Amino acid sequence: MSPAHRRSQPPAVCWGPACARRVRQEAQQATVQALLQALELKDPYTRGHSERVGDLAALIAVELGAPAARVEAVRLGGTLHDIGKLAVPTGLLRKNGPLTDEERRVIQLHPGDGDGVLRGIAVLGEARAAVLHHHERVDGAGYPYGLSGGRIPEAARIVAVADAFDAMTSTRSYRSARPDAPALAELRRCAGTQFDPMMVEALARALAARPPAPGFSGPAAPATPEPLPTLCGATAAVEGPLLARVAAHPPTWAWLDAGAKGKGVR
């Protein structure tokens, strides 16, 4: 057989359960990467944030003793938690000024839109639950369904903590990253209202067990102390007092409700 003929042969076809699993995994990974690439084109910050949230969510799941398959499902839920923002107008995602009430309502549709995007992908069942419910609060004041406590899927409670922690510890164009310790302190302050205390403490243990980065000499002290809000969720602990003035809305983490973009409501 000539070299040219050999090159024209179709790729070998594998058989058996192991091969089928590998093919499904490769297809799933390709789908996730394609979705993230599309999201990055709309909002460059969101891609890195989503991948970090996935890693943090997996870290929490491992700390809780979840089996490998469950850890991967939670990781996918974290990675895809903001995929519904594909349905949010690009101008709104990138808006630098305050959000109106109507714009805020549009942003709050992204969990349901994300669930719709993933609905046809059967292998993402638990990940979909995290996407749909990651803005629920354990006190029932979240959205889209106002679920509370254990009615919120565990994966969503994990992703909510991972999402908040990354938003606080990531550098943004309008503020520098907070160190881990103040971010954890804020999560603990809102445990039992905004967040599941078990997930917050699992993250704290997992972070404490992680080896420090090379050359790390301890957290730097912030140049100017930032006061914490008096009511959990009533102000944006990270982005500043954004939605706190809007008393008509139930307490929510404004910096998450506004797509972790630091947007306010006029």
Automatic annotation (TrEMBL):
InterPro entries: Cyclic_di-GMP/3'3'-cGAMP_PDE, HD/PDEase_dom, HD_domain, HD_GYP_dom. Residues 46-168 form the HD domain. CDD domains: HDc (cd00077). Residues 24-219 form the HD-GYP domain. PROSITE patterns: HD, HD_GYP. It comes from the Bacteria. SMART domains: HDc. This is HD domain-containing protein. The lineage of its organism: Bacteria, Bacillati, Actinomycetota, Actinomycetes, Kitasatosporales.
